[in-house]
Amino acid sequence: MRDAALFRNHMMRQIRSFFDERSYLEVDTPVLSPTLIPESTIENFATRFDNPFLSSVELFLVPSPEIYMKRLIADGWGSLYQISHCFRNSEQLGKIHNIEFTMLEYYTVEADEQDSIAITEELFSALADGDSPDHLRPPFAHLTVEEATKTLAGVDLEKHPRQSSLAEEARRLGLSVPDEGESWEETFNRIFLTFVEPNLPQEKPLVLDRYPAQIECLATRDGAFRQRWELYAGGIELANCYNEERDRHAIDRYMDDEYARLVGKRSESGMPIPDIDREFGTIISHMPPVSGVAMGIDRLQMLLMGRGSLDEVMLFPLSRILG
Fold first, then answer.
1. Host domain of residue 193
2. Are residues 206 and 196 in contact, defined by beta-carbon separation less than 8 angstroms?
3. In CATH, what number is assigned to the domain containing residue 242?
4. Which terminus of the chain is more solvent-facing, meaning fewer CB atoms within 10 Å of its CB: N or C?
5. Could you give the CA distance from residue 117 to residue 15 in angstroms, rounded to a whole number?
6. pLDDT 10s digits, 198-246
7. 13, 147: one domain
8. For the whole model, what pTM was predicted?
């Protein structure tokens, strides 16, 4: 494992040099927060701050530094990056999953999601060397979500904007879909995770963009699509990028809807639900135009080293700690 630690040390220096040379400021924000951006697809780790002189406060380990980095951008700090530990509960442990992981997150002001593709290609060019496999070398290949779903699953998303219609397509493919209570996004994910993601082209890094607007997130909307992309390499998801939403009403609506979904999901489990910062939408509405990318560093290292599992690059993966 010492070779993996040496490789990681070199890779981290390269990443920092890349962003420092482009005048991004490296920041270091908290991993504990009393509030989080609600995401119904993510379970959070909760803990409690106790002090004999203060009221107890429930805190949560952040799944991303986004909540704090966006505050700095709104305050005029310019383009930022951070390499931080992030945490997601209730996820599997496996070859490409660990509930504590390292995230590279970078925000470029006065840029959109297409600009971020070029920046990320430059980063990959800086990290790749003569021994790096082709599926990590730019230029990136491109597919829209609609193209990928039509080619790999035989489903034309443009013809199925309603959940009931998309559910019929999923059943035609042999998938089990409940008669009621499922969203368009949930049905889409059944199709995508079964037929599309496992069969994505792997010859080059692949940008999958123009996500359907029915997939709720804090990426700006452009008609029927979100200004968002995800990056795959060797068939593994590496990064997620948004043209960041800055409309206060859209942010507030998203957070209220996601919070309601969290309440519904956790009413029986009893898992704590992070509070919402009701000023967050107003704060973020003061950001300049900005594009943000979140990239999994452990997965990137695994691919750059030609390894087949996170256990081969992480010094103490939870699977090993738990024996």
1. 141-203
2. no
3. 3.30.930.10
4. C
5. 16
6. 999 999 999 999 999 999 999 999 999 999 999 999 999 999 999 999 9
7. no
8. 0.95
